[in-house]
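INFO batch 0412 | record 1 of 1 | parsing
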Amino acid sequence: MTRLVLIDDHALVRAGVRAELETAFTIVGEAGDVPEAIDVIVREKPDVVVCDVHLPSGTAADVIAGAVHRGVTTVFLALSVSDAAEDVIAVIRAGARGYITKATDGAGLIDAVTRVADGDAVFSPRLAGFVLDAFSTDLSSPEADPELDQLTAREQEVMRLLARGYAYKEIARRLTISIKTVESHASSVLRKLQLSNRHELTRWAADRRIL
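INFO prediction complete | emitting tokens
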């Protein structure tokens, strides 16, 4: 039976989702914030993680990044009250296989989990439109950005958080690395991009629509 971890900061919501899903799947863990979520995913290595998008200490994208950083590859299904395009796109870019809203009924939720576990991508028609628009824009780009390609995957993660205004301490917490490592990556990013400070980096990232 497919093994699930449920991530939501509201215990009552988790209880409701659990009641719907435990009839069809095995629930092996729950969590209410980003660090706890990453820990339970690393410990249980579930087949699917059903994750709220907005958590007290971060987002579903942070959970995905943290799990990947600690060597766990699993399938993520975002479950949120939000149907905002920016939320959908951010989570899918981070690696989620699907995104459904909490307005979905029990049968729809079970179907979504089953489908992502089988390798499908699952979205409501409205949300699928957001994703198709976002990625068709990416695919229509004439060529890769040589400046961005200079950065390692980790440097790109740090770069985006720096450009969004996060402090070093917050970046370290989100990426589960030390502040000194963040400082090192930040210096490398500025050096490679030939930028002088964070303000220039923010403008650089905004111009490329990669914030």
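INFO post-check: Residues 81 and 102 are 5 Å apart (CA to CA).
INFO record closed
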